[in-house]
Design a protein that fits this description.
Elements: H1 16-31, H2 37-51, H3 58-62, H4 68-74, H5 78-99
Length: 101
């Protein structure tokens, strides 16, 4: 059975192209940014890695990858995000120390 969100206005299952268009349209309407299907998948995999807890392969399952390495190599940006957050924390503590706060 196909989920009703994946049914077009004509009653047929959405094509890959139509689904991509829908993702772009809905993200633009919801958050004000046109997110491509690839970036949408990347966000899903990275979110799964950050919040998945004891489920390290959640992103692979979400994206229907048989080999978890595909997810890690091409979609998961959580490590970069974590590194960026750590860098921001270090920079902020340095700035506070320099300003005497």
């Amino acid at each position: 059975m196909v989920h009703k969100a994946l049914i077009s206005t004509t009653g047929r299952q959405l094509t890959t192209k139509n689904l991509g268009t829908l993702i772009s349209k809905l993200t633009r309407e919801t958050i004000g940014v046109d997110v491509s299907p690839h970036l949408f998948r990347t966000a899903g995999a990275s979110t799964a890695a950050i919040y998945g807890g004891n489920h390290p392969h959640l992103g692979s399952v979400l994206l229907n990858h048989r080999d978890p390495r595909i997810n890690e190599e091409h979609y998961n940006r959580a490590m970069g995000l974590s590194a960026g957050e750590e860098y921001a924390d270090i920079t902020e503590s340095y700035r506070q120390r320099e300003s005497g706060n």
